Amino acid sequence: MTISEEQLKNLVLKILKRLEEEGKKEKKLLYMVCTSEWDERYYRFLEEIQSSGEYRICPVIPDEWQEEVRDACLRKFSSCTGIRYHSQGIPADLEDAVTVFPVVPTEVAVKTALCIHDTFETTWLAGCFRAGSRILFLQSGLTPFSGKERPAYQEQLLSYYRMLLEYGIETAACESLF
Asked: Tell me: the pLDDT tens digits for 66-107?
């Protein structure tokens, strides 16, 4: 089989165009769900994830953070594509997104394990379960034991964390996203 110079040129241009289009694919959406209490770990997470360049990040924050100008601080990160307030509810695109909780209060973990959906965070997680989306609880965001708890209490909490793993919630470092 012989190919003319013109056909070869067209073929190379076609391949280059396809490679260029693949390089322009949209980054995956990542919802960073923030609980009602401010924590510097949100900034650390954003700094770490931004350096990868793999995600468009949408912080999901309590409405009162707008008054505290927290939303403006979050917008300074170039990877933040917008802010979603709790009052805006649960979005319809959870199926195609990743949800990360950089800070996980014990109450959120326990209520989720028990299928209690009476807070914004637990309702969001229920929406993620229904959508079949990926959920990550950062290990650094879990509340550690003080060492003063009774063994039965510690074991009960650990059983809730095991349930979360069975539900498909990942508990890992930020690097697991890459």
From this structure: 877 788 888 888 888 889 999 999 999 999 999 999 999 999
The rounded distance, in Å, linking the Cα atoms of 94 and 115 is 18
Cβ neighbors of 119 (< 8 A, separation 6 or more) are: 107, 108, 111
The total of other beta-carbon atoms located within 10 Å of residue 68's CB is 12
HEC secondary structure over 23-71: HCCCCEEEEEECCCCCCCHHHHHHHHHHCCCCEEEEEEECCHHHHCCHH
Take residue 47 and report the two structure tokens written for it.
């700094």
Mention every residue, 6+ apart, whose C-beta is less than 8 A from residue 168: 129, 135
Beta-bridge mates of residue 57: 30, 80
